[in-house]
Amino acid sequence: MASKPLLDKYRALVNLPEYTKLVSLHEGETPLILLSRLASELGGGFQLFAKFEGLNPTGSFKDRGMTAAISEALGRGLKTVICASTGNTAASAAAYAARAGMRAIVLIPEGKVASGKLAGAMAYGAEVLQISGSFDKAFELVVELSQHEPIALVNSLNPYRLEGQKTAAFEIIEELGDAPDWLCLPVGNAGNITAYWMGFRQYHQLHDSKLPRLLGVQAEGAAPLVLGHPVEQPETVATAIRIGKPARGEQALEAAEESSGRIIAASDEEILAMQRRLAREGVWVEPASAAGLAGMAKEIQANSIDVKGKRVVAVCTGHGLKDPNIISDTMPVPIKIEADLLSLMRAITYQ
What digits encode the pLDDT tens for the residues 27-73? Predict the structure, then answer.
């Protein structure tokens, strides 16, 4: 039997208007994968899990929020949705709008979106416009337009996006039996860390579950919450978090502080190294998705965080197929052999 749509499963916990009309691609119920070898490499003595959100329908965590945002907009009678995007939001908005029979308009920063994500948005039928400027400028434009036209803004400024995304916190608690001691995750526009904290607090209030400490991780070249000011020209290989002025920045800082956690930065080198390390566990993520765990590893190795006897969950936000060029552009050429058994045996024996 097919699983329930996410909003049906958590209807009592998700704050949506009565007029909402469900639009679903059966998002959610993503796996929590034990990473025992990586935990051992980081010193051992604790449990480490990856919440692999890359297994949502369009390959990223955005689908959790998009099912709620599109469902609310459809129920309101709107015909068009719009977003600014570094890629994942675009693909998700386009897919759910297509499912609802709505028009999707996407603004992207020129030359700053991974091909796998742009292809997704185009495949689902979005009208994609590139601007000569950053994501932050694109975001300003879509916010302004949505204030003057009957168009639903489906970026994380939309409160229903957070209502959908907080369901990942419920799933983690249900699978572990309680909240983890630490949750680490990437921070770009800061909606996801805000949503997780909403979910954990809500569950705590209802069921007296414990609250995790949050470790939000930005890329060093796009770390406004670490620096304390906007970054006009953010640059990082982790395109999904290449954002210089997060829409939910204040809420993210509050979530980190309230949880007795923090927001830090990781270098591109640290992020890419963790992407490769996760792949050796069978979990291939896009670069930004490795940022949370890269930051956690950095803190553990610096003895800034004690995880002995603890449970740590790393949120891996998007699948590696979202940004395959990071791998394909640097991978070695496959070894060429003759098409006979002896050549094959020699190759696999002596390589």
Answer: 999 999 999 999 999 999 999 999 999 999 999 999 999 999 999 99
Question: In this structure, what token pair is assigned to residue 288?
Answer: 């930004």
CB within 8 Å of 263: residues ≥ 6 apart: 187, 193, 215, 216, 217, 218, 225, 226, 252, 253, 256
Residues 197 and 314 in one domain: yes
Secondary structure string (H, E, C) spanning 232-295: CCCCCCCHHHCCCCCCCHHHHHHHHHHCCCEEEEECHHHHHHHHHHHHCCCCCECHHHHHHHHH
CA distance 23 to 16: 13
Same domain, 148 and 176: no
The reply to whether 335 falls in a domain is no
Query: Do 257 and 204 reside in the same domain of the chain?
Result: yes
CA 287 to each of CA 17, 56, 118, 121, 242: distance values in angstroms, whole numbers, following the listed order? 36, 17, 16, 19, 11
Determine the structural domain holding residue 121 and report its residue range: 62-157
**What CATH number is associated with residue 232?**
3.40.50.1100
